[in-house]
## 1
Amino acid sequence: MGIEEKLPAGFVLTTLEQAAGYMRKSSIWPATFGLACCAIEMMAVGTPDYDIARFGMERFSATPRQADLMIVAGRVSQKMAPVVRQVYDQMPNPKWVISMGVCASSGGMFNNYAIVQGVDHIVPVDVYLPGCPPRPEMLLNAILELHQQVQHSKLGVNRVAAARAAEAAALRATPTHEMKGLLA
Amino acid sequence: MADQTNGPDSGKGGFLSDLFAPVGGFGVTFATMFRKVETEEYPEEKRPTQPRYHGRHQLNRHPDGLEKCVGCELCAWACPADAIFVEGADNTADARFSPGERYGRVYQINYLRCIFCGLCIEACPTRALTMTNFYELADDNRADLIFTKEQLLAPLLEGMLPPPHPMVDGMEERDYYQGKVTSSTPEQEAWVRAREDEPQDGLAPTGDPVIGVDTVADGRQATRDTTEAVRR
């Protein structure tokens, strides 16, 4: 994409990674994606009382094409699942997903045929946030958790290596649909 | 009619107010800088929750360190989201974790299912399970959000000994619930000392009762104050 693709792995690239990570994490724009009651708490985070703009999230983007972060707030029904995936696909890279609330994270108390048992069946999730619904502080905490991940994200050859390692780990891991017990 | 000849712009205001009128609105912005900030400065200054806030669970202990959980599974039955998994086991003379017959050998709460409704707390017959005011639970994978018994158990306070150890001499299960046990005894301490070096079977929590996700260093553990608050 840019100069970072040309750089060899080493001091210059890691310095660039840190700078890029700092800038990315302090200017994440979330997509407006409320699905249920969690969206009310997500809106509360936007109010002056909690003021998400303190973290560089100046506004909730109404189009996925200008968003970096999808906060899946609420239960994802089977019917909504393709829409979630399409919104995710329309977001430009780099992009992140916070699964807000127990319903989005695992289906929560709705263990039935209508609800997707965790949005990670559809899109890769970076931060899981429990709570029903999570209080605004919990969402801010999840965002700070995400900041840690963004700050340490890789670029160029390091990114390719990290992606290879992640894929190898994912292939070794038990698929979500085969998980038993409380993980299902 | 006279008003019309004057017009809205001429008249009342002098030269200066006319000059500053276009930027007068910025005065509001400027004055706001000196007002009290109403925004919660979350990571630095946390606004305390309500005292009975439904936060992370805690498995309480008797004053001598034995666990209150008797492994009855009522919490798991009450849970509307099926978030709790309990497996009881029998206390033996060698390994006693709670007063009475049984204890909870496996205790897991899936925080990606738990809706913090508190029905488990209402169902608990021994008040073994209560809730803390701790809410910072976000994590990056599902497996780590299943909290196990070691993570949920209350920290050992003053006068408590890590189970397994026998009940206080001369006391029976009923006395624990009548508040007759106030602290561990030297006999119990000697019993624990004698078996300290042996490898222990089962889930004996040792020195640091909260291993794994929440450590004091991370500032992610329920504080001792909140632990005190939920203890009854």
## 2
Amino acid sequence: MDISIEYVTRDYVRRQSVNSFLGDLIKKLLKGKIVVLEGVLNPSIQAKLLLEILRYVDTYFFGIDFKTVDGIRSKRKLTIIYPKVKDRELKIEGTSEHLCLSITTS
Amino acid sequence: MILLGLLQKILGKTKKISVRIGIFGEVGAGKTTLANYLTKNYIGIEAGKVTGVPHETRRVQEVENVVIRRNGKELHLTIVDTPGLATYIDYREFMKYGLSETEAIQRAKEATKGVIEALRELDNVDVAVVVVDSTKVPFNQINIMLIGNLEIRKIPFVIAANKIDRSDAKPEIFKEVFSNKPVVPISALTGENIDELLDEISRRLR
């Protein structure tokens, strides 16, 4: 199974409208991509994302999960958004300066 | 304000306020237990069923005409008990509670719809109680998203740090983490501090 991770900068997000950003994000997550976002996701966008993506929940795709990691030396935050699927587990460790994603497939 | 309250008491005048109060929170935080405590105490009926199985509440449940008198105000409440919020629903979790695969898949479908209903309900309430499980860590994605959305919508809210009847409860951590927000440690099971929670809610209503 292919595992793909996409890094999205704050600038890239700023250049898009909320709807186009959300549409793009949903497409990525439904394709099984792990999205690492620079900064944090606004709570209202989180709610919109959930409202949209939960419509796709089935016996393989269970929804999504988020985790925000802080930096130790910098104030930079990263938000990892990833699909929760039947045959894959993601473990997130580290900081925004040194991030480690461990993926277990079954 | 104190003088006004006293005058209202003497004259027997209370300000009537009709309020739609939403009870929100993550799965298993004790939302239905709190709704039941309020509705049973004030009008003698239960808002919903409580079991140990996650996502027991899968539809928004409303109980109208719950009249509570606090601080010179007569609150006519519609209590809205919402399904637990989650970012994902794995049907296999329900099978651990003895459900068959078919039943678990059906429950997951209903629970997913319930989360969507609960999120939509954020636009329909006048005041919110965010129920959090004080035996767990305060910062989780659901609590952050929920509180953030209430703030963006300018909906007054109170955080109810529930389950203080349990020995592993740490409501003081919630008070510390959410120090600029109203946090009331409660036990929806025993009713401890529910009066303080109602006082805090009534303070947030004009």
